[in-house]
Write a structure and sequence with these properties.
It contains 1 helix and 10 strands. The protein is mostly beta strands.
């Protein structure tokens, strides 16, 4: 089973075709296609291709399923005997994407050379 490691929003994700993941908010409407060009590694079975730091020509295309918010996170600050307490909460904005294809440009070129 082929998978890739992509970088988006300051985080890295391990994705395979058909996976659904939540990434930081992307400015793309639901139903549209998102393309991730920052591919750090690609593996299919026994072959592993890694970049330095990125694989040139590799990209992952995904369909935007929905824009959503994460669960509420509450940060409570408290100092004993001082009468100090603060409650701060937030909800992270996320984009849910479904991975469609993973393409590696260098891999296709290597396959052509081996055929000749």
């Amino acid at each position: 089973m082929a998978y890739a490691i992509i970088k988006t929003g300051g985080r890295q994700f391990r994705v395979a075709e058909g996976d659904t993941i939540d990434v930081d908010l992307l400015d793309i409407d639901a139903g549209k296609t998102a393309t991730f060009g920052d591919v750090l590694m690609f593996a299919d079975g026994e072959n592993v291709t890694h970049g330095n730091p990125l694989i040139s020509g590799a990209k992952v295309t995904a369909e935007v399923v929905e824009q959503r918010k994460d669960k509420k996170v509450i940060a409570f600050k408290f100092k004993r005997r001082k009468g100090y307490h603060r409650t701060v909460g937030h909800r992270r904005k996320l984009t849910r994407v479904k991975i469609k294809t993973i393409t590696v440009g260098a891999k296709k070129a290597a396959a052509k050379k081996s055929d000749e």
